[in-house]
Amino acid sequence: MSNDNAHVESLFRTLKYVPAWPEKGFSTLEEARAWVKRFVNWYNEEHRHSGIRYVTPCQRHSGETRILLAQRKLVYEAVKELNPSRCSGAIRGV
């Protein structure tokens, strides 16, 4: 039986493969801490997560998700109306 934590492993994978990851590592502990601080800010404030319908965690926790998804749905519906042949089914993820 595995003691792995899937959520932490997912975060570490994102952390390790983000384009800004320093390939040569860090020279000092302070440099590593500063990088992780910037990463956490990006991860929570800018990075859109597929598991929460491509919004940021901050948007999700602040309650903005409902408004954002409603706006997104309007855009998708307008696009579908303009070019119905490109949209074969129901709008997903909104």
TrEMBL record:
Integrase catalytic domain residues: 3-57
UniProt xrefs under Pfam families: rve_3
Signal sequence extent: none
Molecular-function annotations in GO: nucleic acid binding
InterPro entries the record matches: Integrase_cat-core, RNaseH-like_sf, RNaseH_sf
GO biological process, one term: DNA integration
Protein name per its UniProtKB record: Integrase catalytic domain-containing protein
